[in-house]
Amino acid sequence: MTQSMPPAAKVPAYFDYLVETFHQGTAGRFVHLGYWDKPQERAGAEPFEAAQARLDARLMEMADVRSGQAILDVGCGFGGTLAGLNARMKESWLAGVNVDPRQLAICRTIAPANLNKLEWQEADACKLPFQSASFDRVLCIEAMFHFSSRRAFFKEAARVLKPGGVLVGSDITLLESTRRVAVPGFCIEAPLQDGYGPWPDFWCDDADHAELAKAAGLREGIISDVTSNTTPSHLFTAPEDANDAHDTGNTALRAALMLRWLHLAGHLRYSLFRFQKP
Ligand SMILES: C[S@@+](CC[C@H](N)C(=O)[O-])C[C@H]1O[C@@H](n2cnc3c(N)ncnc32)[C@H](O)[C@@H]1O
């Protein structure tokens, strides 16, 4: 009998564009959606970066991060989250993992401060290069939908956490309703895979965070639906005046338009979560 191997991790396509914008100075270190306290009032006056920083702050509050801890950020992007912790914590071990050496090169421009130790590793989230029980906190912000298996990642996160350690993060999941408005594999999935892929478990066949945490031996904690608080983000990632640009061959923009439509039409969920290792 042949055993199927998980697909090798690939760098998400949209980072070809994002790495360039970072070097041009038109993008910051956060690569996630923003959080609005009053999304109905929408934040015309507020820059996207402020809302992105608020999402990060909410997650760090949920994680209860403190000086002296060992903290791992999986899918660390350009290092925005760990840069913030480096600036305000001391004597901590701050480690970031990513599959993309270009992003890790950007992370390495962060100078260690306050006697913190910074470490950046090129590795797959489903095969973390750390010994068991190494970390007080594992963070995973808006990255998990790229991983070959959410289940494998949860097991790895649980393995590298110390007893009493905490996993905190955010995730985007498609709701069951999406299946009714889609031709699977085509009109919804294709543009998102082209622009934001890899997105292996696109239809969320194995994406119940509470169940994944329980199976990994983590205690059920908090799962918070912040879909409406994150919706205004699309005014920045796919602005109204981009509507007629969907067939220009710009795959990143096409993906952003599709994600915006799914978000506004109520077909996806943006969740924050926190689980603890007993
Ligand atoms: C939307 S970005 C989020 C980045 C960062 N967490 C933030 O909030 O700014 C997703 C990140 O996950 C990384 N990633 C994708 N697949 C990965 C994998 N299999 N293992 C580790 N990181 C991965 C991407 O390269 C990217 O940095």
Briefly, what is this?
By secondary structure, the chain is of the alpha/beta class.
Describe the structure.
By secondary structure, the protein is of the alpha/beta class. The chain has one domain: Rossmann fold (3-Layer(aba) Sandwich), CATH 3.40.50. The chain has helices at 15-24, 48-63, 80-88, 101-107, 150-160, 177-181, 189-196, 209-215, 227-230, 234-237, 251-264; strands spanning 70-74, 93-98, 117-122, 135-141, 161-174, 219-225, 268-276. The chain has a 7-stranded mixed β-sheet. Strand 2, helix 4 and strand 3 form a beta-alpha-beta unit. Helix 7 crosses helix 11. The mean pLDDT is 91. The structure holds S-adenosylmethionine.
Low-confidence stretches: none
Q: Could you describe the largest sheet, including whether it forms a barrel? A: 7 strands, mixed
What count of domains describes the coordinates? 1
**Count of DSSP H/I helices:** 11
* Attached small molecules: S-adenosylmethionine
Order of helical and strand elements: HHEHEHEEHEHHHEHHHE
Q: Rg from C-alpha positions?
A: 18 Å
The CATH architecture term is: 3-Layer(aba) Sandwich
Query: Which band does the percent of strand residues land in?
Result: 15-25%
Helix-strand blueprint:
Blueprint: H1 15-24, H2 48-63, E1 70-74, H3 80-88, E2 93-98, H4 101-107, E3 117-122, E4 135-141, H5 150-160, E5 161-174, H6 177-181, H7 189-196, H8 209-215, E6 219-225, H9 227-230, H10 234-237, H11 251-264, E7 268-276
Parallel strand pairs: 1-2, 1-4, 2-3, 4-5
Antiparallel strand pairs: 5-7, 6-7
Helix pairs in contact: 7-11
Bound molecules: S-adenosylmethionine.
